[in-house]
Amino acid sequence: MNTDVMFSSKTNEWATPQWFFDELCAEFNFTLDPASTHENAKCIKHYTVDEDGLSQDWSGETVFCNPPYGRETKKWVEKAYFESKKGVTTVLLLPCRPDVSYFHDYILPFAEVRFIRGRLKFGGSKNSAPFPSMVAIFRGNN
């Protein structure tokens, strides 16, 4: 297992396993992936770091977001919460970290939480992530 990368901050991008996205998409019918690269985007409509999905308006979309993990994660959770106030449903794939402030400030009181059994294998990796994952669902008009 290449723990040097997985336990470091060399990368904060973890490509979503296709099968996992497909299961969620069958339920939610996503139209936007605002935190992707052109190579790992899960929706035709997507934003890369250059297009800055945090600064875009997500109105009229159903959003799947696997944001960069690390210090930026809080900004994506906050964005999902505020977009839900405008009627946007956003499903976030996140590391399961119930000890962080954004979990208590935004996820616990306003989102549906689904804990993932086992550990996901991101980006075609042969090894599972060194952290558990969860899904936070902010439904429009919360």
Summarize the structure.
With 142 residues, the protein is an alpha/beta fold. The protein contains four helices and six strands.
Q: What can you see in these coordinates?
A:
With 142 residues, the chain is of the alpha/beta class. It has one domain: Vaccinia Virus protein VP39 (Rossmann fold). It has 4 helices and 6 strands. The strands form 2 sheets. The chain has a 4-stranded mixed sheet, with helices on both faces. It has a two-stranded parallel sheet with strand order 1-2. The longest helix is centred in the middle third of the chain and has 12 residues, at 73-84.
The CATH superfamily label reads Vaccinia Virus protein VP39
Distance between the termini: 41 Å
Low-confidence stretches: 1-12
Oligomer: single chain
Number of domains: 1
State the CATH architecture. 3-Layer(aba) Sandwich
Give the structural class.
Answer: alpha/beta
Q: Looking at CATH, which topology would you report?
A: Rossmann fold
- SSE sequence, one letter per element: HHEEEHEHEE
* Silhouette: globular
* Helical run tally: 4
Strand order of the largest sheet: 3-4-6-5
Mean pLDDT: 87
Q: Which value, in Å, is the CA radius of gyration?
A: 14 Å
Give the % helix: 25-40%
Q: Approximately what portion of the residues adopt beta-strand conformation? A: 15-25%
Give the strand tally: 6
The CATH class, by name, is Alpha Beta
The biggest sheet amounts to:
4 strands, mixed
